[in-house]
Every structure is written in C-alpha cells, then in structure tokens.
Amino acid sequence: MNASSTDRIERQVQLKASRSRVWQALANAESFGTWFGVNFKGQRFVAGQYTRGNVTYPGYEHVVLEALVERVEPERYFSFRWHPYAIDPKADYAQEPTTLVEFLLEEHDGGTLLRVVESGFDRIPAERRQEAYRMNSGGWESQMENIRKYVDPS
C-alpha cells in the first residue's frame, strides 16, 4: 500500500479457513452482518441491488448501512458501494459519491488470503473526507480481526 495515498485503504488478513468458508462469511448477507456488525437478517447480496440494515455496534444502532452490491464472483471477488462513515442521522448523503469496497480471496498457505480495498475517498466532500478515511481505515483493521474470529476454526 502506498502510505501517502488518500484515495484508498488496503488491508489483508491470512485466514486458516478454506476459501469456501471465507466466501460464505462474505457473500451471505446474514453471515456478513454477524461479523461486520449490521443486521441484514432475511436479506441477500445480489448484484445491482441494495442491501440495508441497522448497525449493531453499541452507540451506532441509529445508523442504517446501505450497500449497493456491484459484483459477485463466487469464491473470488465481492464488491459493493456505500457512503463511508455516514453516521450523522441529520445528514443526507444521497447526493455524495460513494466509495467502492472490494473483497478479494485467494488460496494461500493452506488457508485463504483475504484482501479488502476501499477506494474513492478523494471524491468525498472535503469537509467529510479526512474523518471518513480515518474512521474507515481503523474500521477495516477491526473488521479484518472480526472476520478472522468468525471463520478461523481455532
């Protein structure tokens, strides 16, 4: 990762789980919600469709996460668009550009290497850009640990 980049966040985690197990945790909306911290109960991730649910993380239950699923390539690639760090209930984020979140899976060292890339921060309005980048950067660190705990057998 280019440390000076302000447009993208990249994180990766080596998981002991099989690629199919990691894929199930990512591509099944309810499973995703369990480790990610959002209630997607009864929903599915379908390319071209929105998935919405309330965040379950304490203090953020008022936040509705809305993701537009872009691409689903089984056991390889999953992506969606969203409004990064859109937590102010009084703000209307609908006219803002979104960032693209991409999950890439590959078999590696008897398990799965999972990479996440979120890009497009340079298009976010200047007054929100730095905080959205900072919060999501730390957020992806936490989420990589969350999915590891969710899928790793040990």
Write the layout of secondary structure elements.
Blueprint: E1 8-15, H1 19-27, H2 29-36, E2 50-54, E3 64-73, E4 77-82, E5 99-108, E6 111-119, H3 126-151
Antiparallel strand pairs: 1-6, 2-3, 3-4, 4-5, 5-6
Helix pairs in contact: 1-2
Q: Could you characterize the architecture of this molecule?
A:
The chain has a single domain, classed as START domain (Alpha-D-Glucose-1,6-Bisphosphate, Chain A, domain 4, 2-Layer Sandwich), CATH 3.30.530. 28% of the residues lie in helices and 31% in strands. It is built from 3 helices and 6 strands; from the N terminus they run βααβββββα. A 6-stranded antiparallel β-sheet has the order 1-6-5-4-3-2, covered by helices on one side. The longest helix is centred in the last third of the chain and has 26 residues. The chain is globular, with a radius of gyration of 15 Å.
Mean residue pLDDT: 94
What spatial form do the alpha-carbon principal axes imply?
globular
Q: What's the end-to-end separation, in Å? A: 29 Å
CATH C-level label: Alpha Beta
User: What topology, given as strand order, has the largest sheet?
Assistant: 1-6-5-4-3-2
Oligomer category:
single chain
Strand element count: 6
Q: What CATH architecture label applies?
A: 2-Layer Sandwich
**Alpha-beta classification:** alpha+beta
Count of DSSP helices? 3
Low-pLDDT segments, ≥5 res: none
Q: How would you spell out the order of helices and strands?
A: EHHEEEEEH
The CATH superfamily title: START domain
Can you give the helix content as a percent range?
A: 25-40%
Give the DSSP E fraction (strand runs of 2 or more residues): 25-35%
Number of domains: 1
Largest sheet: 6 strands, antiparallel
- Give the C-alpha Rg: 15 Å
